[in-house]
Amino acid sequence: MTSLHAHNKAIVANSESPFVKLHAINFGDCQWTKGFWAEKTQKAVDVMIPYMGDVLCGDIGHALNNFKIAAGLKTGEHKGMYWHDGDFYKFMEAKIYAYGLSKDAALLTELDEYIDILSKAQEPDGYLQTQIQLDPDADRYENRKYHEMYNTGHLFISACAHFRITGQRNFLDIAIKHAELLYTIFFQTQNITADLVLTKLKSWDWSSYTVLWVTKST
């Protein structure tokens, strides 16, 4: 395997692109070893990310609880801001990068546990927005104040990073299922402006383009 084709865990999937001169390397292949940024990076891995986990996965932040309730694993009501799902996806993304740097198997196990909950919370048609699912008075995509597209964007980003770094599809499949729902709803609706976000995903044995539609009301 050449060095060019070995870079299949880079965040930017351009290892086989004929249009770039500088190809991205695998995440974690280059790391800060000393100095200011090395210290800040390690502080994030050792302190900041675990602290955010304590907040978001507990009763104070309630973000993971929202997913558990939507999954039928817990009783209760939605708590937090409308963009709380997105905050949890960003936390997951940070933990994914921490795994990419440290290769700590415990981090991957924790991520798999979260992803399993998300999978159970996701509706059969792909919808996944706890602030709507747990509110009987709210309807899907009726009002931008509910931050559905904001949350969706962070779901896509986090899931793509997870796939790129781990090679696992469990998180990616949730994102694709949700993206397919958005395509079904918005692509054929004339009063919606759809901005196409094309994310190229590569692995050793799988190659495709996943079309993610970020939409906004006109």
From TrEMBL:
Hydrolase is among the record's keywords: yes
A single MF term (Gene Ontology): hydrolase activity
Record keywords, A-Z: Hydrolase
PANTHER family to which the protein is assigned, alphabetical: DUF1680 DOMAIN PROTEIN (AFU_ORTHOLOGUE AFUA_1G08910) (PTHR43465), NON-REDUCING END BETA-L-ARABINOFURANOSIDASE (PTHR43465:SF1)
InterPro entries per record: 6-hairpin_glycosidase_sf, Beta-AFase-like, Beta-AFase-like_GH127_cat
Pfam entry (one): Beta-AFase-like_GH127_cat
Domain Non-reducing end beta-L-arabinofuranosidase-like GH127 catalytic span(s) in chain numbering: 31-186
Protein name according to UniProt: Glycoside hydrolase family 127 protein
The organism's place on the tree of life at top rank: Bacteria
